[in-house]
Amino acid sequence: MWTGAGISACMDLALALVAEDHGERLALAVARQLVMYLKRQGGQSQFSVPLWQAPAERRDLDELRAWITANPSADLSAAALADRMCLSERHFARVFRRETGATPAAFVEAARVEAARRLLEGTDEPLDRVAGACGLGSVETLHRAFRRRLGTTPAAYRRRFRTAA
């Protein structure tokens, strides 16, 4: 009989069962797909960045969020996004926050960190190229965003979740 004391503990248990039945390699692949640790260390931050929130009442905001996620290196300033929505910057910020629960800047940073996370997992690109490709500009900005959003550094994240050879 196996038991778990909560959702996270039960997810850990499920991964342990996969590892026991099918091996550590498959369990690690499942953990990566679920954006979890195979064996969680105490006090670790969760790495999942929820970019796909509930749909907004305004379809144009859902389309904008999808565009932001697909174009992290574009000019994603509040002014540029407001222009894209044909709204004043101030009104755009109010509408975006009301509909999504996040400021435009917070959503853009989350999208850029998510893009960087995928590059760190699947490529050997140096950190300066990762930062540039994701619109973060510099390694310093990449580090600050990772610390703020994920509680770790880009290099530590890559060591932990690297999937490509």
TrEMBL record:
Gene3D superfamilies: 3.40.50.880, Homeodomain-like. Residues 62-160 form the HTH araC/xylS-type domain. Pfam families: HTH_18. It comes from the Bacteria. Keywords: DNA-binding, Transcription, Transcription regulation. This is HTH araC/xylS-type domain-containing protein.
